Amino acid sequence: MYCITHVMFKKKKKSKIGKLKEIRIGLNIHNRDFLIKIKKVNDFLLQGYTVKVTVIFKGREIIFKEKGVELILKFQNNIKGVFFKFSDIEFEGKFIYSIFIPKIKNENKKG
């Protein structure tokens, strides 16, 4: 019994849950606000977090899905040197999101 709980504890300790940060933006984000969000994403990636960038559609904005995709691609181009890989752009209801994984995991960070 002890061995089973000990193994489960070790698996839980090594899991990546809680290492995901999410940045949510609207479709009509101002350029300065966009730059601030890029700075936050860079900070999170440099700290070793996985970052999920989500574009939220409000009301009838859902018909402009291509603008949401453009925003995520703009994020991807602006943080090009910081992340290792990213997931494909995914649609989920009124959200479009992509997940960015950092290049270097920070081993000194406690978490």
TrEMBL record:
<dbReference type="InterPro" id="IPR036788">
    <property type="entry name" value="T_IF-3_C_sf"/>
</dbReference>
<keyword id="KW-0648">Protein biosynthesis</keyword>
<keyword id="KW-0396">Initiation factor</keyword>
<dbReference type="GO" id="GO:0032790">
    <property type="term" value="P:ribosome disassembly"/>
</dbReference>
<feature type="domain" description="Translation initiation factor 3 C-terminal">
    <location>
        <begin position="19"/>
        <end position="103"/>
    </location>
</feature>
<dbReference type="GO" id="GO:0003743">
    <property type="term" value="F:translation initiation factor activity"/>
</dbReference>
<dbReference type="InterPro" id="IPR001288">
    <property type="entry name" value="Translation_initiation_fac_3"/>
</dbReference>
<dbReference type="InterPro" id="IPR019815">
    <property type="entry name" value="Translation_initiation_fac_3_C"/>
</dbReference>
<comment type="similarity">
    <text>Belongs to the IF-3 family.</text>
</comment>
<dbReference type="GO" id="GO:0043022">
    <property type="term" value="F:ribosome binding"/>
</dbReference>
<protein>
    <submittedName>
        <fullName>Translation initiation factor IF-3</fullName>
    </submittedName>
</protein>
<dbReference type="Pfam" id="PF00707">
    <property type="entry name" value="IF3_C"/>
</dbReference>
